[in-house]
Each structure stands twice: as structure tokens, then as C-alpha cells.
Model the fold of this input.
Amino acid sequence: MSVFNRDDDSGFARGERALLVLPDRGGNSGGLRSTEARLDEAEGLAEAIGIDVVARRAFKLRNVRPASLFGKGQIEEIAEIASENDAGLLIVDAGLTPVQQKSLEEGAKTKVIDRTGLILEIFGERAATAEGRLQVELAHLDYQAGRLVRSWTHLERQRGGFGFLGGPGETQIEADRRLIRDRMARIRRELDQVKRTRGLHRDRRQRAPWPVIALVGYTNAGKSTLFNRMTNADVRAEDLLFATLDPTMRAFKLPGFDKAILSDTVGFVSDLPTELVAAFRATLEEVESADLILHVRDIAHPDSDAQSADVAQVLTTLGLDEAGSPPRIEVWNKLDLLGGDDRAALLAEAARREDVYPVSALSGEGVDKLSEAIAARLHQRAEVHRLKLSAGDGNRIAWLHAHGEMLDQRMDDETVHVAVRLSADNWARFQSL
Done:
């Protein structure tokens, strides 16, 4: 799937020397982040797949050129910097249209990859499960479908990475597009089957009285380290963007519960490609069906607030806004990286806020208190509800078993009488079923 690690000279390779450029449109284009912070993140993305960023530069854009993004003089400067640094790859930290990519390749005399392509490459390299690989391939095909345009001969071979793309020529391009559409349709059918299977697994979990807690957060916020700490697992946890892609679920102990399930999910990132948001929507259904969401933040990161806003935006895009999603707790992670006045100020702020818990997943500081808070939140404002349900309403009865404490259940002809203790949040969710 990846266009990296090719044996010929037409693709990218680990260790490729690259020039990183950031189109700075001014105003609020960068949100809460500084230019340097945005360059740092883009360089981290490149390093995640072994690209050697030998130079980086931000270019002010007064006007966005539809044909090339940058102005003619800026492209000439980019070509000069690339040549001086012997960079064979240009990374543009923005989304590029196919026409803009082609123009930059010709003007800079280098191969070009944009932010979307870069993230897709990382996902293609990291996806470990069959479902993850299918989701990434679907996203990659969607991305490549619009990029079958006339280009250099070697770039016609380089693009796509799936072994069926042909050379230049309108007829061949149309054939390639048809092949891509057919492959995408097959993948969607396979993913539908995976989705049905996962739904059956989720139904089985819901029939057991175990709450599900989902971890979400910006990439590299420490979700997997916290997951390992709370479940005694050994999920890959590295100081690396997108170290975890495939969702992982493990049982763990909570005060007052025989068992609970913790789910580790893919990290989010600013400007997450729309192709990936759509492809991973099914995976993130685990978040939607959770009893509680833990939003893990790297509180020591200078862009922690911006990262938090990005996570909220992605959740909203997935239909998980605050009003309609499970309740949330903010976990302010990496407390061990703060000291002195910064640490004292952070702890004071956390104490003033509801549902905010500072921890160090690395050292374990604050994790026990977090576990107690999770248990308390799951039991918060629990009330006993006495209900009459149809005997055929198995899904709702199973949901009550999964999300509440069943105190009594008896049959009367075709009616099931239940007494169940539910939190206010779960009672509201049950009523909306």
C-alpha cells in the first residue's frame, strides 16, 4: 500500500532527504499554534516514517494560487533550497490539489507529498489488523483517485502503490479510475462485514455487566502508556506520532466493579484528512458506545489547548458532540514533565475544575485517584428505575444489564418487569434508544 520502501528510484524511501514547507496564510489559519509549532509537528510526522527533514521553511501566502499554491518566486526559492540541501522530496504541510502537486513537482524538480499523503503513509505503515489495513487502503484509494493526472513518467509509476496503475494517457487513466472504483467497492463490502462482526461482539459485551471506558486524545498524548498502566498490558507506547492505530480493548479493575473494559483508540491530529475520518468512523464506534470517555491530554505540551480543540472538532465531526456523546473526563497527562511553579499552577487549576484529573501515566502518579473518579462517575447520581418491557425487547434489556445494576428482573406473560439502578447520563441515553 505504501509508496515508501520501493526498490526502484521512482518512489520514496526511508532516509529520504526532504524539504518541509509550510504555507502560512496569516490570520487565523494556524489556529492556536505558532508557526514553529506547526513546523515541529509536520517534521514529527515525517520522522514517523523515516524521512530525514534537512531543511524547513514557512512561506507567507498573500494569495493562494489555484494552480500552484505558492507564487512563482516562492517556487523558485523552494527549488533552490531543495537543491542546496540535496532534498529529493518536498513535503507541503497543507492539502494540495492534484494540479498544485503536479505544478510543484515540475517547479521544484522534486517529488511532492502533502499533509494528507504523509498521514496516509504513516497509517499504511502502522495498521496491524486486517480491518485497519482495509480502512487505510480505502482512504488511500480515495485520495489517489483524484491524482490520476498527466505527470512525469516516473511519477505515474510512483503514485498509487497498489500495483495496478498504468502510465500516462487519458484512456489508461480512465481504466485506472475504474479499477480504483471497483477495488473501493470491494473494500467497502469487506468492511461492512467486519462492522457486522464487530457489532455482534459489542452486543455480547453489552450483555455482560461491564462498563466500557474509551481513551481518546491527540496523537502522542500518552493514551497507550495510560492504557498499559491501568490494564498491565504491553500495547506499543512510544514517543512517536501515531504509535497506535488499531483499537485495543483490555479488562481492568475499578473500585466497586468486578470488571471494566478499557479501549485504546487511534490518536487524532489537526487537519485530519477527511478520507481518514470517513474510513475510521466504524473503528471509532467503540467510542460512541462507551459508558465514559477519557480525553487524555499532554498537559506539558505548549499546544495542549490547541490539541484539545482539535480532538473536540474530530469528535464533533464523528457525531460525538458533548450533548449527544457519553460523559467525559479530562486526564491531564505527563505531569512528570512539569515542575516548580508550572506544576503548582496546573494542580491548582485542575482542583478548581470538575472532571479534570492530572496524572503521570509514566510514573503512575494520580492514576489511582483517576480510577476512583472513573468509578464514581459511572455510579454518579444513580437512581433506581422500575420498568415494564416487552419480552421481545432483548436489545434494550441487554443494554440495561450492560450499563446499569440490575436489582430485579421477572417475567409476567409477555412483559418483563425490571428494577435497575442507572446513572442520570445512562438513564438519558436509555430513553433516547
Notes: Residues 127-199 form one domain. The CA atoms of residues 148 and 173 lie 6 Å apart.
